[in-house]
Amino acid sequence: MEPLLYIADLEKQVMDDFHLGPINLKLEPGTITALIGNNGSGKSTLLKTIMNLVKPDHGNIKIDNMFVHGENENWKRLVAYQPQTIIGWDAFTGEMLKKLIAPLYPDWDEALFQKMVELFEVPLGKKFAKLSQGVQQKLNLALTIPRNAPLLILDEPTSFMDIPSKKLLIDLLVEWMESGNRSILIASHQIDDIKKLSDYLFVLHNGKMLGHFEKEELTSTYARYWLRDSLSDTRIPGEVTREDRMIISDNPMETEAYLEAKGIQWSNRSSLELDDIITILLNNKKM
Amino acid sequence: MELPIKISKDSREPIYHQIVNQFKALIAGGHLTTGTPLPSIRALSKDLEISIITTRRAYQDLEVQGFIQTLQGKGTFVAELADDLKQEVKVSSVHKIMENAIETALNYDYTLEQVKDIFLEILHTYPKGKGDH
């Protein structure tokens, strides 16, 4: 299938001290990718570059086979992007913002907008500046998702929202994806977004791409063992960390082959939670 | 629809395989009857916290083996099962669970004779006549 978003060898130097890339990424229609990274890893810069709000120094970005930095701007109607912070909305009410935004999108889904406003209890008559940060995010989502663009890009959309609203949003996005040809790229630190929504994880650390993983493939790469006997100080193949008799491996096959060859028994083997794996990835940075 | 499907991420059995086997048991055991609509791949992926790649693979396997069918634009439904296929699934799933139990006991250094005693002991805790036809 033709990728909806295609990024090749993207690089960007920001000021003197931050370098993003090289980034390579393809998003297939019908999939959800979580963009994960430490604070300051370049997630927002990457999303802005996709939206042509930041010019890359090197590399290409295509949306549905159109270069985003080319003359042709038709790709813009294929993307709905929700930035982390919005400038210029403060003086407007939700109702006014909707009247400005909806006509720009031919596939605008008014029923979905009304449904979201009702579910999230967003007061449409209040000025944006007067809303709490959580309600601002809810209104922002209600003004973004109903655009029904095939590619939805969300930059930490729920950071200020309450727990029930976060759950509501996950259900809304699952339903929104049912049409089949849509994709979501979501930068998030919320473990529930990552667990319940994402098919793939794209992991960034200080501007460097650590990998693009299918979720179960990633989980199956890690295992935790509790050994019956204590170990010598020699590093075991696959070992990532150890604490006394517990070791974590990022190569269970090699680890088990070694343990078996040495006659070391383990009393328990378990898989790791995704947040543990992300922590290991971001702390160890080795691939 | 929430289904009584539970996957174990610690199991050595691949996740898609666990899903396939549990669906088979639900269908062969009559808990999911012919024509019952199944959750979409995306919705089941959310409930089980797995990727659509894994769920799709499970649904494809079930479809190839004749347990479910997908109707274009309508969704996925439980298929009509031949009686001998139902029987086969019943026999093999019960056998598998017994095998696992025996395997666990042997790992704890029980002898086969002791396993047999445990089995009979448990059997006796059930009231007489339960399960008679």
| Total beta strand runs of chain A | 14
* Unreliable parts of chain A: none
Q: Which CATH architecture of the largest domain in chain A would you pick?
A: 3-Layer(aba) Sandwich
Mean pLDDT of chain A: 94
- Morphology call of chain A: elongated
Helix count of chain B, per DSSP? Answer: 5
Radius of gyration of chain B: 18 Å
Ends of chain A: how far apart?
Answer: 28 Å
Helix content of chain B: 40-55%
Which chains make the largest contact? A-B, 20 and 14 residues
Strand order of the largest sheet of chain A: 6-7-8-3-9-10
CATH architecture of the largest domain in chain B: Orthogonal Bundle
| Estimated radius of gyration of chain A | 22 Å
**Total helical segments of chain A:** 9
Structural class assignment of chain B: mainly alpha
Write down the CATH class of the largest domain in chain B. Mainly Alpha
As a percent range, the share of helical residues of chain A equals 25-40%
Q: Which band does the percent of strand residues of chain A land in?
A: 25-35%
Give keywords.
heterodimer; A: 287 residues; alpha/beta; Rossmann fold; 2 domains; six-stranded mixed sheet; 9 helices; 14 strands; B: mainly alpha; 55% helix; 8% strand
Describe the 3D structure.
The complex is a heterodimer of chains A (about 290) and B (about 130). Helix content of chain A is about 30%, strand content about 30%. Chain A is of the alpha/beta class and about 290 residues long. Chain A has 2 domains: about 5-215, 3-Layer(aba) Sandwich (Rossmann fold), CATH 3.40.50.300; about 225-270, no CATH class. Chain A has a 6-stranded mixed β-sheet, with helices on both faces. Chain A has a 4-stranded antiparallel β-sheet with strand order 2-1-4-5, with helices on one face. In chain A, strands 12-13-11-14 form a 4-stranded antiparallel β-sheet, covered by helices on one side. The longest helix of chain A has 14 residues, at about 165-175. Chain B has helices at about 15-30, 40-50, 50-65, 85-105, 110-125, and strands spanning about 35-40, 70, 75-80. The mean pLDDT of chain B is about 90. Classes of the chains: A alpha/beta (about 290), B mainly alpha (about 130). Chains A and B meet through helix 5, helix 6 and helix 7 of A and helix 2 and helix 3 of B.
